[in-house]
Automatic annotation (TrEMBL), chains A, B:
PROSITE patterns: CNMP_BINDING_3. This is Crp/Fnr family transcriptional regulator. It comes from Croceitalea marina. Transmembrane segments: none annotated. It holds the Pfam family cNMP_binding. It comes from the Bacteria. Signal peptide: none annotated. The lineage of its organism: Bacteria, Pseudomonadati, Bacteroidota, Flavobacteriia, Flavobacteriales. Residues 10-121 form the Cyclic nucleotide-binding domain.
DNA sequence: CGCCGAGTTGAACTGAATCAAGAAACGTGG
DNA sequence: CCACGTTTCTTGATTCAGTTCAACTCGGCG
């Protein structure tokens, strides 16, 4: 929880009252490994902050499981496409490990941001952070080769390789499991 | 200008006073074709709304010109990575046609959003829209083949193919000019 | 006319996917 | 604590989508 608060404090000014307000709108939840948090076809109603564990977003493209996002400790995860549009998601979300999460419900989050000037601003800057994340990943996948993407991954997500099946990382990086295995072994 | 205002009105509530405030913070600028609006190494200080014309963002990867984004009429364009972090951009921005643009300066935009509760909210929802755009493009480039990406492009950007050199569209879609030429002719 | 940039087409090449076995690691029940 | 089946990872052979390199076409314009 300390890390969660720090994330917001780093973004903007968070007064003690607003901090309390924030904490009152979110819920601490625990799930065992391999729990489905969102099914395709449903609207994504929650954003999760990962306190402990690991979450994955994925979808089925031509019947194959493809990882869209991997969320380790201290990161926010959600099917943002559906979360913001309020339309059914084409993506699934699952836990890959036993998890402790902080759940941000859509309606409550909107209410939170609307409840004070300061929070509204934090919300805006929070979204800007999200834009930066996506922009970076977009550039990465647009311009870099499979080997470069792997290199960047192990640098930006140290330790995750050991915690997630290779196949999931491979599709996250836009390559097959075999290719990743070969890159990893130095061909 | 009407289209610009409509964009914001569609997002949230824009009172007449705030509308006036908004208009007073932006500047209408005109540039001839092939004008450089941002050079690599500089911080991107402006976001542009394209009233008329066409803007392109690009960078040099291994000495080659690669298009990152194409902004036609009624869209916002800027090197958001640099714009939000206030760090030097690795990207360039140029006009591809004579342009009429509305310039949103970083500091003024922040001031605008800070100047009222309503505008702060509009700013937040505006950023959320940006997230949606990036999320869509990320999925597109992550999961689809060259031919699929082309198909989606001509549907989402009708007419642009006729206005932009093929090489720029090709690199925007993550393929070579020759490949795009072949896809277009049906192999 | 003849040049020049933009687009097309062809042939050879290559990075990565696919298909197909194995090997290693893992977990569960006896 | 071992045995067995399942899942995960590696390795090899082949195929394929897309790149590279190079030549050629076309239309505009001095």
């Amino acid at each position: 929880m300390e890390n969660l608060l720090r994330t917001f404090r780093d973004i903007g000014n968070l007064s003690p009252e607003n901090e309390k307000l924030l904490l009152s709108t979110i819920e601490r939840v625990e799930y065992p490994s391999k729990t489905i948090l969102l099914e395709e076809g449903n609207v994504c109603n929650n954003l999760y902050f990962v306190e402990k564990g690991l979450i994955r977003i994925y979808l089925y493209k031509d019947g194959k499981d493809v990882t869209c996002w991997i969320g380790p400790e201290n990161e926010f995860v959600g099917a943002i496409g559906s979360f913001f549009t309020r339309e059914p998601s084409n993506k699934w979300i699952e836990t890959l490990e036993p998890c402790v999460l902080w759940k941000f419900e859509y309606a409550k989050l909107e209410e939170l941001f609307s409840s004070s000037r300061e929070l509204e601003k934090i919300g805006r800057l929070f979204s800007n952070q999200g834009i930066l994340l996506l922009d970076k990943r977009l550039d990465n996948i647009h311009f870099n080769t499979a080997a470069e993407r792997y290199e960047i991954f192990i640098n930006t997500h140290p330790g995750i390789l050991q915690r997630v099946p290779l196949s999931m990382i491979a599709s996250y990086l836009g390559m097959t499991q075999e290719t990743l295995s070969r890159i990893r072994s130095g061909r």
